[in-house]
Design goal:
The chain has 291 residues and is α/β, with parallel strands linked by helices. It has 13 helices and 10 strands. Helix content is 43%, strand content 14%. Helix 7 crosses helix 8 and helix 11 runs antiparallel to helix 12. Bound molecules: acetoacetyl-coenzyme A (CAA).
């Protein structure tokens, strides 16, 4: 990938956070400079984009500048043909403690409305490549919403998820009321949104918010492993599969099934579909070319 700031690499390689997962980060000479995130590529084939939120002292509170950098890093990974999946993580204490309250404190309705406040956060949800959230510590408010914009959530065993906006006199504003409800159902979502109470990683797993729970020190490595697995498949077909599953959140069953059928049929126009089936019949490993 094009973007990797040298200072960020030095910081990434420091042993204070997630040591095993950081070893494979490589510097790129021509790179964007990021202030609030660390960006690199991971995996044996360096085919997994890696973004670590890096406002540790503020528990990765999601200030506007951070979210813009995140969008920029996603753009770069989306444009990098070598990258097949992206892992997004925070620190061991906090994936992210929410939107930056200090930045929001003095905002007016007029500013929020006219500027369509938080609308650019949606960049994460619109990524074409699969994004895996590796969540340790707090995923609160916008942090929980950010994780839910990702396609897969892996949680460390000490992770906590919550939508505490009600305690600040506001409500979730980055999709929390919608995505949480679709993930865990009405009763638990309503309870979390109305009380601000958090749930543990284990509760999040039991209720379908996260797919796997690992010891905190392993969750990033496991997310990268999952990313490598995804990246080893056809990127073209992976994008179609992601589009089809996402259809389930926005369409009726009939519309969703129609979308799936169109995409399924479309795979038959690709070289990778032919290669995948020919390889199976010939009892050899498929060699996908993303065509
Ligand atoms: N915004 C700005 N700063 C934040 C922050 C946030 N969301 N969360 C934590 N911080 C800052 C604190 O102000 C503190 O900074 P200082 O050292 O300069 O005082 C630093 O991070 C450490 O935080 P604490 O001292 O509070 O750490 P703690 O371990 O005692 O508590 C916590 C941790 C329970 C997560 C607590 O920080 C907390 O409750 N944070 C706010 C969580 C929250 O309400 N999130 C929702 C935000 S609104 C939102 O996200 C809207 C939306 O839908 C997009």
């Amino acid at each position: 990938m094009a973007a990797l700031c040298r200072a960020a690499v030095a910081s990434l390689c420091a042993p204070r956070t997630l040591p095993s997962a950081l070893a494979a980060v490589r510097a790129s000479s021509a790179g964007a400079q990021y202030q609030h995130i660390l960006v690199g590529k991971k995996g044996e084939k360096e085919n997994v984009g890696f973004i670590q939120l890096n406002r540790t002292k503020a528990l990765n509170a999601l200030c506007d500048a951070l979210m813009r950098e995140l969008g920029q890093a996603l753009d770069e990974f989306e444009n990098d043909p070598a990258v097949g999946a992206i892992v997004l993580t925070g620190s061991e204490k906090a994936f992210a403690a929410g939107a930056d309250i200090k930045e929001m404190e003095s905002k007016t309705f007029q500013e929020c409305y006219a500027g369509n406040f938080l609308s650019h956060w949606n960049r994460v949800a619109t990524a074409k490549k699969p994004v895996i959230a590796a969540v340790n510590g707090y995923a609160l408010g916008g942090g929980c919403e950010l994780a839910m914009m990702c396609d897969i959530i892996y949680a460390g065993d000490k992770a906590q998820f919550g939508q505490p906006e009600i305690l600040l006199g506001t409500i979730p504003g980055a999709g929390g009321t919608q995505r949480l409800t679709r993930a865990v159902g009405k009763s638990l979502a309503m309870e979390m949104v109305l009380t601000g109470d958090r749930i543990s990683a284990q509760e999040a797993k039991a209720n379908g918010l996260v797919s796997k729970v690992y010891p905190a020190s392993q969750v990033v490595d496991e997310a990268i492993r999952c990313g490598e697995k995804i990246a080893s498949n056809s990127k073209l077909i992976t994008a179609m599969a992601k589009e089809a599953v996402n259809g389930a959140f926005e369409l009726t069953l009939a519309e969703g099934n129609r979308l799936e059928k169109h995409l399924f049929h479309a795979t038959f126009s690709t070289i990778d579909r032919k290669e995948g089936m020919s390889a199976f019949v010939a009892k050899r490993k498929a060699n996908f070319t993303d065509q």
